[in-house]
């Protein structure tokens, strides 16, 4: 993956805080596993991400194009031939790491979107889902994080419902018992992405411009969500919730109004009046 | 159920806005089904409940003992003999209503807690769970809402995991196909609460002083959570998420700090500095 020198330098200086962008030039992978400096409950939780680092996380409170959102089901559009993902089989498995706030897998792949190519950095899981469709959430969601040579980030997301265990998800989740603690790393079983590529191509997509769903909540992220969920069985769901516990940011406003900011203004007015 | 005259008068004047307290003297049941004036996404969502009605919902933004919370698993204590629920079988079923933001069941019953008796008003469902235990959420949660003669409210909550379908939950969920729209009402199959009473008595409880988890977020609510989850099968879970979609408030701070208020103050300081 090509890295711009200045971004590379920045990335070497920046702490590994998040997972939406973990391994991108914004925040490179840390040696020996990083303990993210945010969480999902209380003062570490999403409402307070801004206060955890007011400079770095400014957009978590003040952004106007934040993710996740509640998607309108009617906005699903057929996946054009100019949009595709290509992820070679990981014949010997791939690295699976427990980052504390999620588990992620690092392997190679590409996203081609209208002639622009981005490289797969990692994919990771959320439970329950971060995005909702017509108000409905799903038990899990997986995010494939891609970065282009110009450092722009695209995330391809799949909602995950309960049902038969998807073979690819099964091969990843089978590794969870080996990474019980933050920083633990193991190798997955061999991974085959052929069915996922076809699922993506045939299911249509929701697309919108949003942000990282974890601090620093950077905007300018191209979101591409598959309209059709993958599926996981109860045992796989239990394994993820036992380990990750809960890591979904609440849905943001999709009308260019920041909810935290809106709420703050209302509360300030209440103090004055 | 005995109602204090002034509370009864108030209750007749108040609109039916919520479901945590629906049917209590705070908000009596409306004729023909009420459409709650709040939601779970965007400007109707939990971050903005205060702004929807600044007088009525003041505590949603400014309360310091708000629910739900992330419970410490170690705080589970054996259920004392002075704490029990008694809910007679509903031999001919009970009324099941779609309130838009949840479904609720009205039937009679009592909670005895240290010599104080409260009457069951209704029970209703959340998905995913509102409370978390050691950070872990569950797919569902059911709240049994009780009110005492002094108008104080106690809620007995059960987390619900995936597994064999609990017979009582199954008898309730079987009614969901008959109430597809807000305001729809049906009758459940016969309901037997014997197993639930035993489950409650034998599983231990987490107890804390919190609030309604829906507007107006009133405080002074005695929360009593069973330490052991009930279970529901995948079909029951699908039926609930298809209908309710998502209705869980984010966890609040359990240290007497209001997160929305905290966040607002930080943002005001950022504007001044």
From TrEMBL, chains A, B:
Keywords: Lyase, Metal-binding, Signal, Zinc. It catalyses: hydrogencarbonate + H(+) = CO2 + H2O. Its EC number is 4.2.1.1. Pfam families: Carb_anhydrase. Reversible hydration of carbon dioxide. Residues 1-18 form the signal peptide. It comes from Lasiosphaeria hispida. It comes from the Eukaryota. This is Carbonic anhydrase. Residues 36-273 form the Alpha-carbonic anhydrase domain. SUPFAM superfamilies: Carbonic anhydrase. Belongs to the alpha-carbonic anhydrase family. The keyword 4Fe-4S does not apply. Its cofactor is Zn(2+). GO terms for molecular function: carbonate dehydratase activity; zinc ion binding.
